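Issue 218. Parser rejects a valid record. Input:
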Amino acid sequence: MKIYSIKHFINGLLWLILGLGLVALILLDKFTVQRCLFAIISFIGGIFTISESFSSDDMEKIQDEIHDERNKLIDSYSKSLTFSIIQYILIISEILLMLIYYYTNNEVFITFLIPIGLIVFLTFVIHFIALIYYEKKL
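Output the parser choked on:
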């Protein structure tokens, strides 16, 4: 049998090793339903991933899906929307923390304000760098 995707084959092996490790952990430590379910899921995922790596038809379907323009566009829009939502949540939480600090004068809120403010600043800087990069590239 020929391996058509080394990446999928290694990924499947890692899932199988994880499943074996969980089985060993179940045998050595104690049985829990969580470990058992995760071991079963990792075994099934590993077997399916390894079987995909041996099938040329499955690899062609996966490559077609990856390179499909519609899927790329959907992925781009979803990433953009996710980024915008997270940015709005951070800005709103920053404003709420500022208001709470203003009314309570508790310095604990400053320890939350500074990291969130840095994250908001970094997201704006990264956004503008990406805009400049894609304006030049496209």
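Fixed in the parser; the record now loads. The chain is about 90% helix and 0% strand.
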